[in-house]
Write a structure and sequence with these properties.
The complex is a heterodimer of chains A (about 290) and B (about 400). Chain A is mainly α and about 290 residues long. Chain A has one domain. Chain A is built from eleven helices and four strands; from the N terminus they run H-H-H-H-E-E-E-H-H-H-H-E-H-H-H. Chain A has a two-stranded antiparallel ribbon. In chain A, strands 2-3 form a two-stranded antiparallel sheet. Chain A is globular and about 65 Å long. Chain B is mostly helical. Chain B has a domain of about 250 residues. Chain B has 20 helices and two strands. Chain B has a two-stranded antiparallel sheet with strand order 1-2. In chain B, helix 5 packs antiparallel against helix 15 and helix 12 packs antiparallel against helix 15. Chain B starts with a helix and ends with a helix. Classes of the chains: A mainly alpha (about 290), B mainly alpha (about 400). Chains A and B meet through helix 4, helix 9 and helix 11 of A and helix 8, helix 9, helix 16 and helix 19 of B.
Chain lengths: ~290, ~400
């Protein structure tokens, strides 16, 4: 029983991070119909910037802000410089460009910061709370992860629901031509969308790194998990991404918790889940569309 | 004269309408162009390809005998990259399906070869490689069934999951597959006939490295011969139809899914052979050899060479082999240490992917061919004007 609680708890915490990362993918997919495979590398770059600041003696919070700001800048620059020329073109071209970014940024991180494993600090403890004399798998750090993701989601909802910018962004995602005719600066909105998505991705990169080791490729699994979570939710729906992230987190946690030597199988399990979902419900668990074409 | 001219103009009509989209430009109908011109090559596709195979065999022997052992081993690496890239370019260029999972499919071939070479009395090498191809083909068919229903980013994501997930199996079954350390591969000794052959051709010493370079070259030539015939056959044309016009192809009675699965299966077979050769050449099958970077490097090779072009895949693979030592040296001169300089190659791959997609989506071969076709069309137009004017 206690193991079940612990496995479930850690699954939910991991799931929150996957959800945030999936949300970043969904934000970009909704506005530009591109899956940003470079999201993981971009997030890793900001995590290394944060780590450099922490090693230089700055506090975790300063580093966090710096990472999020640099995420915003990277996202905006990437959209303006390399994504804009392939937007609206053949979908294969956009996929290949984001893959190129993925590999280039990862290599650049290794060149600048080195490719060794470095430990990433966390502002809170990693010892579990004690409930009734036994330690459970909920740590202050995991509470911080949950709260940080919830705050981010709340801010995004507020932005899209209650502000003019949010309305303009929704309009340009919904119908570019119409939005342009109504005076929305669609190009700027797309850049802003990429920048915001990069901030969310950067946050999830920092959260997953907290208390663990980082190296240039540490986000490789997360990009897969985020993609699987986003596809679970239909790739189009922010709520779906969050539910998908939590479901995936739980599923993977049960695999690594209950299958002997299951931790080696986590990536395989994600692959199996993705395949099953794509074969049985290609539009995701919550999709209303029957077929998905082009 | 007049007859050949009319043939020329029909060939021109076909090529003028050559599609300019990224994937199509690289495989404009060169057969038609060859018919009209005076050509030394036979008109039958099979015969023409056989002639090319003979020329390539002689060329490969000459190349391998005049170069030093180090270059020989580099050429062996070139052969496995080129085999895999050839399969991938058929899949992506001709059928429009992207795959980031070819590194994983190569791992399937490599581990199969490694397992078979472990026994004390291994079966003949050709048989081992054939089994590797069959196993990878089976896995590829399985993935292909899933992949046939996906496109673009979905397919990329699914195959990405394959590339990240599959090496995990090697760690899970570490008793048979060696875990993180991987499996050492005992490279087979060159047969006596090979030693005699080398002694007769050049008198060089017939080392194990040289033998593997020859094995790679032979596998490469066979693969490209089979793929080139496939591309120019009814099957290749159907793949192109599936890529360019789904609806029209479906109306013409083509079962889209089945043809996509077939493309993926053929491509996986090539990847399996590439993996087998790679295991022999590297003498190791380990998860660290089949990272995502390998799959992305293959993608770089075919994008740079020109999607859908076998020649492009070969040129792109040459870049994968000869670029890393060059940029690593360059990095060393600029004061980077070894591990940092080793990362310059993937950095260049990424930049090349981005730049090629933005500025020359047709790739090297596609761009050159497009230029050439435009130039020819202009010349013909000028000639037509001159003759009608005079």
């Amino acid at each position: 029983m206690q193991q079940f609680v612990n496995v479930t708890l850690s699954g939910l915490v991991e799931g929150m991070v996957y959800a945030a990362f999936a949300l970043a993918l969904v934000l970009i997919w909704r506005s530009t119909r591109i899956v940003n495979f470079a999201q993981g590398s971009m997030a890793a770059a900001t995590a290394f910037i944060a780590l450099a600041l922490i090693n230089a003696g700055q506090s975790y919070w300063v580093a966090l802000i710096a990472a999020l700001v640099s995420g915003f800048v990277i996202g905006a620059v990437v959209e303006r410089v390399v994504i804009r020329p392939v937007e609206g073109g053949p979908e294969l071209n956009a996929v290949i460009v984001t893959l190129g970014l993925f590999v280039a940024i990862q290599a650049l991180i290794a060149i600048i910061f080195g490719s060794s494993f470095q430990s990433f600090p966390t502002p809170f403890g990693v010892r579990g709370f004690e409930v009734g004399g036994s330690t459970i798998a909920l740590t202050p750090t995991s509470v911080y992860v949950i709260v940080a993701v919830l705050i981010t989601m709340g801010l995004l909802v507020a932005l899209f629901r209650f502000t003019r910018v949010g309305l303009a962004m929704r309009a340009s995602a919904f119908g570019q031509e119409v939005a342009r005719l109504l005076g929305v600066r669609v190009g700027r909105m797309l850049t802003l969308g990429w920048a915001l998505a990069a901030v969310v991705g950067s946050l999830s990169g920092l959260l997953i790194a907290g208390g663990e080791f980082v190296y240039p490729a540490y986000m490789d699994s997360l990009i897969v998990f985020g993609f699987v979570a986003a596809v679970l939710g239909g790739l189009d729906s922010p709520v779906g991404a969050i539910v998908g992230g939590l479901l995936l987190g739980l599923a993977l946690s049960y695999v690594s918790g209950y299958v002997p030597r299951g931790s080696a199988l986590v990536n395989v399990a994600a692959l199996v889940i993705l395949m099953v979902v794509l074969l049985v419900r290609p539009g995701g668990l919550f999709a209303s569309t029957v077929a998905r074409r082009a | 004269m007049s007859e050949s001219q009319s043939q020329l103009s029909t060939a021109g009509a076909a090529t003028d309408e050559a599609p300019v989209e990224a994937t199509s430009a690289a495989n404009a109908p060169s057969t038609q162009a060859a018919v009209g011109r005076r050509s030394f090559l036979p008109t039958s596709t099979l015969l023409r390809h056989l002639v090319v195979v003979l020329v390539c065999l002689v060329g490969a022997v000459i190349l391998l005998e005049i170069t030093d052992p180090f270059t020989n081993s580099q050429l062996a690496s070139l052969s496995y990259y080129a085999i895999a890239a050839g399969g991938l370019t058929v899949l992506t260029g001709l059928n429009g399906q992207i795959s980031l999972g070819h590194g994983a499919l190569m791992a399937v071939g490599a581990y199969t070869t490694a397992l078979f070479l472990e026994s004390d009395e291994p079966v003949p090498l050709a048989l081992i490689l054939l089994v590797s191809v069959l196993v990878a083909t089976a896995v590829g068919a399985l993935v292909g069934v899933a992949a046939a229903r996906l496109h673009g980013p979905y397919l990329a994501g699914a195959t990405l999951a394959l590339a990240v997930g599959l090496p995990g199996l090697a760690i899970y079954f570490h008793d048979t597959l060696g875990g993180e350390q991987g499996m050492r591969v005992r490279a087979p000794q060159p047969p006596d006939a090979f030693k005699d052959f080398i002694g007769w051709v050049s008198g060089n010493s017939a080392t194990g490295t040289k033998w593997l370079a020859y094995v790679g070259a032979i596998c490469l030539i066979i693969t490209y011969f089979l793929l080139a015939n496939l591309v120019r056959s009814r099957i290749g044309r159907t793949w192109r139809a599936v890529r360019d016009q789904e609806v029209a192809a479906e109306l013409a009675g083509i079962n889209l899914g089945a043809w996509r699965v077939l493309a993926f299966t053929v491509s996986a077979a090539a990847a399996g052979l590439a993996g087998g050769v790679m295991a022999l050449v590297v003498r190791l099958a380990a998860p660290s050899g089949f990272t995502l970077v390998l799959s992305l490097a293959l993608l770089t090779a075919i994008v740079l060479g020109g999607l859908g072009s076998l020649l492009g895949a070969l040129l792109g693979s040459a870049l994968l082999v000869f670029l890393p030592p060059f940029v690593t040296d360059l990095g060393g001169q600029f004061g980077l240490d070894n591990t940092e300089a080793a990362q310059l190659a993937p950095f260049v791959y990424g930049v090349v992917l981005i730049v090629a997609m933005i500025f020359a989506p047709a790739g090297f071969v596609g761009t050159v061919r497009l230029r050439w076709l435009t130039y020819r069309a202009k010349q013909r137009a000028a000639a037509a004007r001159a003759s009608s004017g005079g």
